[in-house]
Each structure stands twice: as structure tokens, then as C-alpha cells.
Design the sequence.
């Protein structure tokens, strides 16, 4: 039982050591990267799966192109709207005589004085 407790303490101290954990994590990540680079998806795919993958890539590219076009259209409409709003506010300002605002900040004053208690 005592050896198990000592081994648990040792393992726990290793796990709480940040430098050790970082080192192990980077080692494992390096191994995973190597394996991923070696793996070739096309070797393991059937001809049907390859065809489906090509169709999926084509559809993805089409959707991406449509999204880019839609984003351009949204940006254009937004720019037009902002320009229109700026023109409207400028024309209203000019109609008022060039003043930005006719309302002023109100100050709050005390309405009663303190009375002394007896």
C-alpha cells in the first residue's frame, strides 16, 4: 500500500508540473502531426466516395462564391443606406439653420431647503 501511495504522489507531482505537461503535449502533438501528414485520404476512399467528395468540393466552392457575392451586395446596400441617412440628417440640419440640436441639457436644482429639527 505504501508503494502505491508513493507512486501516486510521484505521478501527481509530474502531472502538476506545467513544464512537464507542456513538453508531453508538444511531443504528442508532433507525433499526431506526423501521422496526419502521412495519411492520404484518397488512398482509402472508394471510387464512389471520391466522386462524392469531388461533388461536395464543387458545391462548397459554389456556396462560397455565392456568399462572397451576397456579402458584396449587402455592403453596397449598407453604404447606400448610410449615405441616404447622412444626406437626410444634413438636410434637416440645414432647414433648422445649421444647428445640430435644439434641445439643451436641463440642470436639476434643489426645490426645498433643509430645515433644522428640534
Sequence:
Amino acid at each position: 500500500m505504501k508503494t502505491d501511495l508513493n507512486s501516486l504522489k510521484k505521478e501527481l507531482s509530474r502531472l502538476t508540473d506545467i513544464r512537464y505537461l507542456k513538453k508531453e503535449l508538444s511531443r504528442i502533438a508532433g507525433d499526431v502531426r506526423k501521422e496526419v501528414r502521412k495519411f492520404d485520404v484518397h488512398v482509402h476512399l472508394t471510387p464512389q466516395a471520391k466522386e462524392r467528395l469531388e461533388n461536395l468540393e464543387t458545391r462548397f466552392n459554389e456556396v462560397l462564391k455565392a456568399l462572397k457575392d451576397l456579402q458584396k451586395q449587402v455592403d453596397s446596400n449598407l453604404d447606400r443606406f448610410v449615405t441616404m441617412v447622412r444626406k437626410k440628417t444634413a438636410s434637416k440640419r440645414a432647414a433648422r439653420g445649421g444647428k445640430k440640436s435644439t434641445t439643451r441639457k436641463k440642470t436639476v436644482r434643489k426645490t426645498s431647503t433643509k430645515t433644522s429639527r428640534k
